[in-house]
Sequence to fold (319 residues):
Amino acid sequence: MNQAELHRKLIAAARRYPPSERVPLTFEKRILARIRACPMADHWALWSQALWRAAAPCVAIMLLLGAWGWLTPAAAPPANDLSQVAQGSTAVFPEPPAGAPPATNLSQELENTMLAAAETEQSLDLSR
Amino acid sequence: MERTDTDLIAAVLGGDTASFEPLVAKYSPRLFATARRYARRESEVEDIVQEIWVKAFQKLRSFRREAPFEHWLMRLAVHTCYDFLRAHQRRREAPFSDLFQPEEDWLERFVSQPSAAAEDAEAARQLVGRVLEQLSPSARLVITLLEIEERSVKEIAGLTGWSVPLVKVRAFRARAEMRKVLARMTTEKYL
Fold:
């Protein structure tokens, strides 16, 4: 059987009979009634509604976090908190070697500590 | 003076829902013809057209007026019909044993003498309907738009939202699928 010819004939038959354009009676009225039942989606209204709904939980979370921060006692500073050392403690950092400029801030304190060993060696060499 | 589509759409967007009625009256015949290509039962056809209009009303704000309203509406119609086909995929590989007598006679005539089987016979139209029902939704859509409605690939791309190469690939596959269905039909009947 010639299938290409069968295909052509069937498609030609489909083309020859376009479907009817008949519209059922009072179809427009039915559509309008259905449309009135489900109004047009207003994106702005949907967004504002969603934002208003989200506002209450956000405020609640904010208040909870605020209360938590207010009521929890301040924790002890961690051992490696250099800012505490800079305020006067010498437990971690040794005294600067003699002759070194006095530390004025944290960065200078750190620099003194790092160079302390080298400066000590250098002063010993000079004394020999 | 008759109001243009643009005037009516502007009125609907302004809150005058009644202005939608002339649009429904004007374009419904075309939508019914389109829906009847994909659905057999009249109740299904009505449901499809109703869904198209409800979607059109709800998405009217997204109509940019760059193209005529009819083009935008037809794109919506094709999408809705494609969704319908996907949702109502009938059992594929259904047997062709339940052909009606006129369809069987037409096929017999074609087998014995192809020129004797007239293209304008109602039986041929019924038969093509059965063959199209056996195709996958995308194949059916492409065959309908490309071969039956004789639209260009570019037009189909515009209607479906697919790219031009994708339409070409789907058209190639759809023709192969249709050949397979026809081969199965003739094998079942005559072997």
In short: Chain A has a mean pLDDT of 77. Helices of chain A lie at 3-16, 27-37, 43-71, 82-86, 106-127.
